[in-house]
Design goal:
Layout (H helix, E strand, L loop, with lengths): L1 H103 L1
């Protein structure tokens, strides 16, 4: 009789242990799934944020390049105008020197 009770107690104890292990395993698996879902959501958010930030940065760079091009074109135009004026002065000076030289003959 003692052996039957001992065997029955072991069996009940093992069943309780298995039941607790199953419950805890289910909880752990559920928590792992939740963590994975949060990681995936976070990853998607970060990828989307990076795409948005990169797009904004590209637009800023394009705008900056456009402004720089405009400024460079303006500066080049201004320099061409100044060079034209200097060339006219040089021509005037050359003509004056030629006139002086002819007057000295």
């Amino acid at each position: 009789m003692k052996g039957i009770i001992k065997h029955t107690l072991k069996k009940v104890t093992l069943e309780l242990v298995y039941q607790v292990v199953d419950e805890r395993t289910t909880e752990i698996v559920s928590e792992i799934k939740e963590i994975k879902k949060r990681q995936e959501d976070d990853f998607r958010y970060l990828v989307q944020k990076m795409d948005t930030d990169i797009g904004q940065l590209r637009n800023e760079v394009k705008n900056e390049i456009g402004q720089l091009r405009s400024e460079v074109k303006s500066e080049i135009s201004q320099l061409r105008t100044e060079i034209g004026a200097i060339n006219q002065r040089i021509d005037t000076i050359i003509q004056m020197l030629m006139t002086i030289k002819q007057g000295q003959k």
